[in-house]
Amino acid sequence: MTQRAGVIGHPVAHSVSPAMFEAAFRAAGIDATYEAWDTPPDTLEGRINALRGAGFLGANVTIPHKEAVAPLLDVLEGPAQQTGAVNCIVHRDGKLIGHNTDLVGFARALREDAQFDPRGKSTMLLGSGGAARAVALALIEGGAGVIYVVARQPRKIDRMVVDLKPLTRTGTTITWAYWGDGSYLRSLQQADLVVNCTPIGMKGGGANGTPALDPKWLRKDALVFDLVYNPQETPTVRAVKEHGARAIAGLPMLVYQAAEAFRLWTGIDPDTKVMIEAARGALAA
Ligand code: NAP
User: Which of 19, 124, 165, 215 is 20–30 Å from 159 (CA)?
Assistant: First the structure.
């Protein structure tokens, strides 16, 4: 029987996941299809329950359902449990297991593509949503010295820091600042790594074409990691490179978090070169 997987979100018409996963299934010789399942919030429960049927490998979950799916699953594992955000569901014998593969995807892209070791480093995250939580956990695991979260809703950032503090180890400090008051700019000048965990700069987003930060505050040896992957060279990446600092956009992370989902579903490590080419093609189309 042809197996099935797909992405659950709303909207999902422009998702590059079908292209990435279909290419990976083909390359691995696995008889499976991957669909874009547009799922308005009031149909989420039915969509999730359908995954318990025979032939379903599982699903990826994207905006706006990453937190809403958690209570609909049988168990959450690892980073999904720690962050409360699920971006991958694995089906096993009628049971649904929630995972978060953003942590693994970010850590791999930081290590392999940016060649950056966070151990002891001063880091800053812009944004306090689901992706920011996964990135913060990856930096905690990587032994970052300082994790400074900057976002626009004080109560929400405080909750994120309170949740993550117990997970930090000796040598890692996690703290936050309100984006609006500008006090974070002093820390920005000291940051070795800045991660944009907001959609600022995303194609079709509200602030289309705007970088997430003013690069004049950055040290020239700083690295900026922009989670945004569409366009492939984002406004933030372009502005930071023009300033003379290093920058990487979100496409490698997108592919690696998808590769981790593929491994969880099939037990096989997919060919990420095939996936990155397919994602580039879908983004260019
Ligand atoms: P999310 O849960 O909706 O969180 C978005 C965060 O960005 C929130 O803190 C939000 O602030 C903030 N934000 C949104 N617009 C803003 C603006 N104009 N100014 C300041 N802050 C703003 O989304 P997410 O799942 O964390 O995803 C965030 C971004 O990362 C998206 O662009 C997503 O596509 C990207 N992403 C990429 C990958 C990858 O593999 N490359 C993986 C995951 C996510 P409020 O809380 O105040 O609304």
Answer: 215
